[in-house]
Amino acid sequence: MSRLLRANFTRLWRNRLFWIAIVIVLATAVAAVFNQAQYTYVPDGLLFSGINIISVIAAVFVSIFTGTEYSDGTMRNKLAVGHSRVAVYFANLIVCVAAALIMHIALIAVVVCLGVPVIGTFTLDAGLAAKLFIYSILVVTVYAAIFVLCSMLITSKAAGAITVIFLTYAMIGGAIVLFRILEAPEYSEAYVLDEESGTEYAVGGRPNPRYLTGAKRKAAEWVLDLLPAGEAMRIQLADQADPPDQIPLWAVSVTAVTVIAGVTVFRKKDLK
Fold first, then answer.
1. Of 125, 124, 102, 127, which is closest to residue 115 (Cα–Cα)?
2. 229 in Cβ contact with 52 (< 8 Å)
3. Number of H helices, E strands in the chain
4. What is the pLDDT of residues 186-234, one digit of tens each?
5. How far apart, in whole angstroms, are the C-alpha atoms of residue 129 and residue 111?
6. What angle (nearest 5°) sits at the alpha carbon of residue 28, between those of residues 94 and 108?
């Protein structure tokens, strides 16, 4: 296992795509800071806003980094010299999680270092910021685990990359739709036009037919919390009155299930 990890990390540090991804992350963070400076004097909103951006960049990197092992025969060679499939899977998982976390931390570092002089001082409570940082690490880990699962089970590098990227956008899009549905008001305001004065005034709320209740609402909330993109949105929108304390349970559970499923299937996969 240690030999696999050393080889994987050596390959990571020498991987051109990894450093290109880092440059893209840094450039994205710099652009976001200067863009945000036009609208606010507080950089808090940028601190954890890049999780889903990191997911897209990491999806491309992980799928190609892992898929290359199939295309150049490295995967078969690792198994041929006696490494177990479990060790191979975990070695790839660890290095891909590390790569995704490096991207994530690099983005936060730019926001912290550049955000204060360009935008202003952070107002987020230090304890809450630390909690959300830990939560964000767990969510990025979930993303990486899902990407490794797909990339390790799909032997074609091109097919793996397409699958992972499509899945990433599907998770983000699904989370956005669910969030908007759940944020819909229970009552919609009704207005009446006063023809004499030409002004409108509210006459009371009407029930919103799109407002989810009961089991449907619980199911929608459950799916949103299950998606790493939904967890990322809750972190981004969290405030001191409503920290997303359910995130660690969901993130650890999804990561565990993903890893167990990946290892189980990979152990039985025909690599010929």
1. 124
2. yes
3. 10, 2
4. 776 665 555 556 565 555 567 777 777 788 888 988 898 889 999 998 8
5. 13
6. 55
